[in-house]
Each structure stands twice: as C-alpha cells, then as structure tokens.
Amino acid sequence: MAEFLMPSLGADMQSGKLLEWLVKPGDVVKRGQVIAVVGTEKGDIEVEVFEEGVVRALLAAPGAEMPVGAPIAVIEAVGEAEKVAAPAAMPAAEAKTPPAPTPTVKAAEPVARAANGHRIRVSPLARKLAAELGVDLSQVQGTGPQGAIDKADVERAAAALKAQREAQQVVPAPAAEAPPPSAKPMDKSSAEFQASMRRAIALAMARSNRDIPHYYLETRINMAKALAWMEAENLKRPIQNRLLPAVLLIKAVAKALTRVPQLNGYWVDDALQVSEAIHIGFAIALRQGGLVTPAIHHADLKSADELMETLRDLIMRTRAGRLRSSELTGATITVTSLGDMGVEKVFGVIYPPQVALVGFGKVTEEAWVENGMIGVRPVVHATLAGDHRATDGRTGAEFLDVLNRLLQEPEALFNA
Amino acid sequence: MVATQTFNKEDLRQLILNQLRGLAPEADLNYLRPYDDIRETLEIDSFDFLNFLIGLAKETGVEIPEKDYGKVSTLEGLINYLLAHM
User: Fold this and answer.
1) Chain A residues with CB-CB distance to B40 below 8 A
2) CB of A17 within 8 A of CB of A38?
3) How crowded is the C-beta side of A242, counted as CA atoms within 13 Å?
4) pLDDT in tens, A19-59
5) Which position has the higher pLDDT, A335 or A118?
6) pLDDT at A169 > cutoff 50
7) Is the distance from CB of A246 to CB of A407 less than 8 angstroms?
8) Digit-coded pLDDT (tens) for A340-360
9) pLDDT of residue A12 exceeding 90
C-alpha cells in the first residue's frame, strides 16, 4: 500500500486543488497514467502515477485544496502481498469525503515511506542518494529508460523538496489562504488565477534575486548558416512539419551542455549537483499574462522533428492549461526566447534551484565584420545568466563559445 | 485539395480573420487595418504565426514559404499574395 501524495509541481507550490479524478477505486493503473487533474498557479496539471498498481481509495474529493505532501489516494502496488499491515488510519472504504484538512503545511516532509520492494525501477546510485537526501522514492518521477529513477531524478526531487521547504519558511501567511476544502466547487476565476500565478512568480523570482549572485555574459551569434539550413530543410517539408528557429536554439543549448555540464543542474545544500539528464525548461508566455516553463525532457537526444513536436505539444497544452506533473518539475536549466517581442537581448533571472538561464533575443540584421570585411548578417544575441555560487564566468564563456560554434554547423547539430 | 474552390478578396479576408480569431480570441479584429503588421498588432509569436499559415494552407492550398514571409505581414499583402498563388 502506498499513499499517493499531492505532488510538488514546482518550488513555489504550496497546495493544489483536486479538480477531477480520472480513476476510481478498483481501477488498475499503469506507470505514467494520468490519474487526476490538479489546479495550480500554473494551470490545471495532469498528475501521473509512477508505479503500477490498483487504486484502493481516493482520499480527496474534487474541489478540495490539498497541501503538498498530503495523501490524496491509496494505491496498492501490483503484486504487493497484502501482508503489510494496512496503515492504521485507513479511512473506511472509498471514502469520498476529504480528510480532515491537515492544518499545518508540515506534510511536505519526506516521510520515510517504504518505497522498497515494489515496481519502481531505481538505479543503485539513485537509491543510495535518496537515502542520504531523505527523498521518498515513491514520490520521485523517473525519467530514465522505462521510467527508471536515476541519480538526476533524485537530485531534482531533493532540490524541489528543499526549495519548497525554504519557500514555506519565507511565505508570510499561508494560513489566510487555507479555506476549508471542498467549500466551493472548482474553477478559480481568471482574475484569481492571474493573482495566484503572479504570487508564484513573485515568490520564485524574489528568492532568486535574494539568494543567487547572478553573473551575466553575452555574445553575438551569426545565424546565417543556421537559418539557411533551416529554410532549405523547411522547403522539403510540408508546412505542418516546418521547423522554427527555437528548435535549433534548444538543440544547440542542449548539446553545448553536454560539453559544459556545470551549468546543467541544481544548487542544493551549498553545492552544485550536476544533472546527467538535460531537461530544458522553455519559457512559454501566456496570452493573458504570466509564464510557464515546462520541461523538454532529454532535449540533447531528440531529433529536429521530435523537438518541434514536443514544443508544439507543450505550447498547446501550456496555453490550454493542461500540463503533466513531470513537465512542471523536471527542468534542469531554462531557456527563454523573447525574440518574438522584438527585444534584442534578454538578461534572465535564474529559476531556483537551477544554476543557469540562457536567453535569446530577436534575430536581426546587423553589421558583421569578418576577415577585414564588413557585411550584413542575421544575428542573435545570446545571453547567459549564471549562478556565481555554482560556476564562474569562465565556464559561462566556454558555454557561449561552444553554443556559437554549434550553430555554425547546423547540419551537424542533429547528428548523434 | 481545396484549391478548386475560388475565393474573392472578401472571402479571403473573412477566412484570414477567422483564423486570427482562433489565435487571439481576446483581440478586437476591427482594429486591424489593411496595412498594419498582423503579428505586431495582435502579438502573435512565431509559433502561432506558423499555425496561422498551416490553417490558411488547409483552406486555400497555398503553402507560403519562409522567404515570402515579408510579403504577407499585413492583411492586404497576405490577401494579394494568396490571390496571386491560388
């Protein structure tokens, strides 16, 4: 038996409102299956399970606002012998009533849930690390092969947990925000939604500027070759399969990170934890204001078509307010591209606990000097905001240099 | 596939406005004048602009290549481009 907890969908999340159950007691669930929809500041998120099992009880009624870490369902792992004594306080049958609201938001502490045994695939290193960091493996979303939990997943979970606890210490009065669950039926009004998204952004960004000593670097990149390659590529494709420049930029960033990995990861417990996996959070602005940065998982391993497809899918679902939990928590670095708004460069604020943010401005024609000749080229200004606790300017400079060189050989960019 | 259908200028205008309405539901399209830059006026990003062109291609059969994006940045330019290429 495992309690399924309200997941933390970002460092700034305190609680989520259960909007809808997509399963009922008795249902068999598979790894990665979406079982519920939870309303957060970032829209309605589809929550996935990461274990096979049978739903035994739903502990939160639709409409209930549940703190992060509070049990919302009981899911019995497949094949798990029923020998373990059922947790004492199991509510009678499929209680649809919301549990007594956990008054303090303490529940987020890493309860040492018996995650051993059942079907979670965990690398030995990840398991060891989880024990050290006090991470509950049953709550970790694996992004390795076949959903296995790897070292990076555990680090990410630990970082999120820590950030979340810190955030809770900072927030002055969540108390005022805790209306009795199930009071009113779902649907935050859009003004309310806006306000809560603003608060979430305010919290994360204020923390970033308070805690992270940013350094900034900028370089100009000649995009002539990259754009020519893309145009030629797009001529061969039907219009629905056309690529956007963002695909090249994301791929180049991901590939550059494989060579300068120190910028990809988290700052946790006064130390840099480099992530092996490269999950790029791509900033997507919402038309009504605010932004969300869902993760493009393993961006370094994706082809141009896969990246375009992922991007398309993420943008649509971000705007429709339907992201999955793994997409909101996974990013190991953020890329923001404000070129569409006409600005030439963007100096970003790092999203903690990440340690870097890469910004791209608009591609504009600029005077370009090369071999003693002056000419006109399409140019993009790439910037790097780095966490000076984690890396120094030299590392950042190396990254931008590699990024530039990768974009000069666009045909090689998508070769493995 | 749809290219057999014939469109006049007004048909195209309506068709374009319909597509735009889907992308920028909150915008008042009455304010979009014939020579305004569509993307700037309605704050349409490159992703939505591509979707817009995909939608137009479905309706008119015309796939506008990237090199011609400069010619279709306004309502008037776009209508004339489509008329010439259908």
Assistant:
1) 342
2) yes
3) 24
4) 888 898 888 888 888 888 888 877 788 888 877 888 888 88
5) A335
6) no
7) no
8) 777 899 999 999 999 999 999
9) no
Q: How do the residues of chain B divide into helix, strand and coil, expressed in percent and rounded to 5?
A: 65, 0, 35
CA distance A360 to A49: 35
| pLDDT reported for residue A184 | 33
- Higher per-residue confidence, A181 vs A125: A125
Task: Kindly list the domain boundaries of chain B, sorted by start residue.
Answer: 9-85
Could B46 and A244 be called an inter-chain contact, meaning their C-beta atoms sit closer than 8 Å? yes
Tell if the CB–CB gap between A288 and B24 is shorter than 8 Å: no
pLDDT over 50 at A101, yes or no? no
B8 min Cα distance to partner chain A (Å): 23
Which domains does chain A show, CATH number per domain? Answer: 2-204 (2.40.50.100), 213-413 (3.30.559.10)
A249 in Cβ contact with A395 (< 8 Å): no
Whether B46 sits inside 8 A of A231 (CB atoms) is no
Q: Of A239, A311, A315, which is closest to B53 when you measure between CB atoms?
A: A239
Q: What is the pLDDT of residue A128?
A: 65
Rounded distance between C-alpha atoms, residue A308 and residue A302, angstroms: 9
Q: Do strands A333-337 and A356-360 pair parallel, antiparallel, or not at all (unpaired)?
A: parallel
Residue type at B19 in one-letter notation: Q
A139-A205-A189 Cα angle (round to 5):
75
**Contacts A311 to B, Cβ<8 Å:** 47
Q: Which CATH architecture does the domain made up of B9-85 adopt?
A: Orthogonal Bundle (1.10)
Residues 2-21 in B contacting A (C-alpha not used; CB under 8 Å):
none
In order, the DSSP letters of A56-84 are: EEE-S-TT-EEETT-EEEEEEETT--TTS
Count Cα neighbours of A355 within 13 Å in the Cβ-side half-sphere: 27
Looking at residue B40, the DSSP 8-state letter turns out to be: H
| Mean pLDDT value of segment A175-192 | 43
The confidence score (pLDDT) of residue A161 equals 67
Classified as helix, coil or strand, B25 is: coil
| Complex ipTM | 0.85
In Å, how far is A149's CA from the nearest CA of chain B? 33
Q: Do A231 and B66 touch (CB under 8 A)?
A: yes
What tens digit of pLDDT does each residue of A269-312 get?
999 999 999 999 999 888 778 888 999 999 999 999 999 999 99
Q: Which of A226, A200, A223, A157 is nearest to A413 (CA)?
A: A226
